[in-house]
From TrEMBL:
This is Class I SAM-dependent methyltransferase. PANTHER family: METHYLTRANSFERASE LIKE 7A, METHYLTRANSFERASE LIKE 7B. It comes from Streptomyces beijiangensis. SUPFAM superfamilies: S-adenosyl-L-methionine-dependent methyltransferases. It holds the Pfam family Methyltransf_11. It comes from the Bacteria. Residues 52-145 form the Methyltransferase type domain. Keywords: Methyltransferase, Transferase. GO terms for biological process: methylation. GO terms for molecular function: S-adenosylmethionine-dependent methyltransferase activity. InterPro entries: Methyltransf_11, SAM-dependent_MTases_sf, Thiol_S-MT.
Amino acid sequence: MPLRPAKVPRDAVHHPVFARFYARVSVSADLKGGVAAHRTELLSGLSGRVIEIGAGNGLNFAHYPSAVSEVVAIEPERTLRQLALRSALRAEVPVDVVPGAAEALPVKSEAFDAAVASLVLCTVRNLPRALAEIRRVLRPGGELRFFEHGLAQDRTMATVQRVADRTLWPLLFGGCHTSRDTLAAIEAAGFELGEYRRFTVPEEGLRVPTSPCVLGVAYRPGLTGEQ
């Protein structure tokens, strides 16, 4: 009897059409919309082992400082993961791109000095669980660097975001939810907020539900071995 081929598990996330769209738009936003500068600010001063959650097409890789000894880049979407692998080959620091979901990171507890979440927490299916996983894999005192879309402080835009999230926006844009209160969720997950700043992307011109952004750092408190 011939052997059956091994069953290949499905990816945790599958948005091939959005992935191709995002790959084009994100490169343009970096070059023309000033996003590359935010990536540099996000990663400045990092060192040691870093885990990046939802690495996308790997645009952060070129901005990691040389003091970073290793980046483990988690990307659940196959098309974006293939692009990230290409970006990893050009990076000046070691980058290992692996499949996985933010809600179940395939790494050991307390294994990383820092975690990076860049334009991804708006898309995870279970935000509290994803943040709990990030907390688990960070060493005590480890940093969470975040650059995320977030709930607008302007009431009109916040209303637009909530309406968008209840309609076709998440379906069209890879599960993106624009009205999530990222800072509140990070604090609720047990992190201590450090410095952060709010801004819009783009800084001038048309505002869309993903324009309000926040960039900053939070820390995992506690003693070694605490979960």
